[in-house]
Amino acid sequence: MNMKMENFAHSKPYSELLVVSIEQAVAAPLCSCHFAEGGARVIKIERPEGDFARKYDKAVKGESSYFVWANHGKESLCLDIKNRDDAALLHSLLAKADIFIQNLAPGASARAGFDSDDLRRRHSRLITCDISGYGDTGTYRDMKAYDFLVQCESGLVAVNGAPGAPGRIGVSVCDIGASMNAIIGIQQALYLRSRTGAGSGVKVSLFDTAADWMTVPLMHTVYGGKAPEPVGLHHPSIAPYGGFATADGHVLAISIQNEREWVRLCAEVIGDAGLASDPRFSDASLRVKNRSDLDALIARFFEANTRGDLAEKLRNAGVAYGGVNSVETFSRHPQLRRRGVTLESGETVQLAGAPIQYSFEDPQASFGRIPKIGEHTEAIRREFVRVEANV
């Protein structure tokens, strides 16, 4: 590695950024955590009692799985932003900040004197990001917007689950998606600032995020006259597609999306080349129309073979497949990367590796430590009181 690359390797992409975030739960903390992973200094503003996500569970050696996942590498500053002195300190922080993120209830930050538009007028380079449940206008503006409720309101649960039994997606997908959209918006604002010198405002809501994902079902409903229904592991317009039990008690999923794969499945996996031209199954629409017969046929074949044998045949034939794994099985998956993180207690645990891998970063490097409630409060007060005095 030459000297230039060595220097670059020690400078993460956000290493010169200061991010200040009044955050709680998942969406905003996960967003700011991305910037911490990228090298930014992230100051997490908490109530004196701490972010309530700290107490969601005790699954990680007595600490919250949600909090550990979304808060490593940050500094924790406890403030009461309604208190005049604490508000003054926050204003001092924001005068030096590059990014301000908040996911308080709609209007709460403005009532406390931290309206995003006002802040950008005061600090021209500041980028603000407001994350909400339903946006800052409309009749749903003040509705509670927990992830599950947004999944329900947006129709996500209506297209998930099994027939007759709509189901919640088993992770906080609206929170996660809103966080990713916030990151995209902030990155775009940073790029714009690099050209214009001016900060801008980003607004993201959980509902808008879910609505975007629901575009295809929405178009089917509005223009096609019929919404997709929950089909479990199946697909409403593709067959064969789904999970099938094996002789040794596992479930393998297959997804046949073109005629070439269909022919190979019949000839090289099932061992019946003539099945590909069966009048019931000879094209994609016929396979969907006769799904029950087709699924029964494939189910019988899978039930007579072990997972290992089927996986070998499917892989050799170039047929798309995957295991329908439990979380326990997933935890031992050969493709699962791990990355260490140090808990408040000082113990170390392994999280899933970051989804983004940089060419200049050691993939074995640990994430930053989980901060204790208010751990950095006094140090930050001293630092920014000095900064204010020197201005």
TrEMBL record:
Source taxon at top rank: Bacteria
SUPFAM superfamilies: CoA-transferase family III (CaiB/BaiF)
Keywords for this protein: Plasmid, Transferase
KW Transferase (keyword) present: yes
GO MF terms, alphabetically ordered: transferase activity
Stored Pfam families: CoA_transf_3
InterPro entries: CoA-transferase_III_domain, CoA-Trfase_fam_III, CoA-Trfase_III_dom3_sf, CoA-Trfase_III_dom_1_sf
Record-linked PANTHER family: SUCCINATE--HYDROXYMETHYLGLUTARATE COA-TRANSFERASE
Protein name: CoA transferase
